[in-house]
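WARN no homologs supplied; continuing
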Amino acid sequence: MLLRWYDTRILPILLGCLTPVQHAAFAAGTLRWDAVDRTGAVVTLVDDPAPPAQPEAPRFGARQLTLDDRQYALLVDASALDGLLRQLQRVIPDELKRVPQKQLTAFVSHCLELALAAGLDDLDRQTQFTVLGLYTSGRAYDQPEFKRFMAKPPESLDDFYNGIQALSDDVWNAGPPLWQSTPAATPGKPT
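OK structure emitted
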């Protein structure tokens, strides 16, 4: 796998999933490493006034860093949020511009967790699920009609999309859109 480790959306996750030995090898010689995270905040990833000695360089052609299945899964999961955020920005760009990035990222991350827990493992249905959440500040998720729909969500995108669109006004008007609601709305919890 080729990893864009310098991508600041991935770098904190990568550093967080490494073993201490892997972390020391990866950050060898680094005194301080700051980056801008998904929300636009500056975070310090490495701050070591006395870094350990440089590890021995791997032989030519040898892998410099090998991830186990758990580490790989953490990186794949992290990319799912980025994909969903990009897709939402294509679907409702004007609305999302009115939501602070930090709030949007936290809200969409929680929606993604709910979608995955409901068995929505594809980007298209996750997008439709999250759009409903964004249009209601997450309050649609608490509506009995929506809960019945999600008890056995349609497998096909067309059926899922049509089912979401066919939900009653009670569901679609359960709460204000996130871009009109109070800050820090949490899906499934009234603000």
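Strands lie at 32-36, 42-47.
OK
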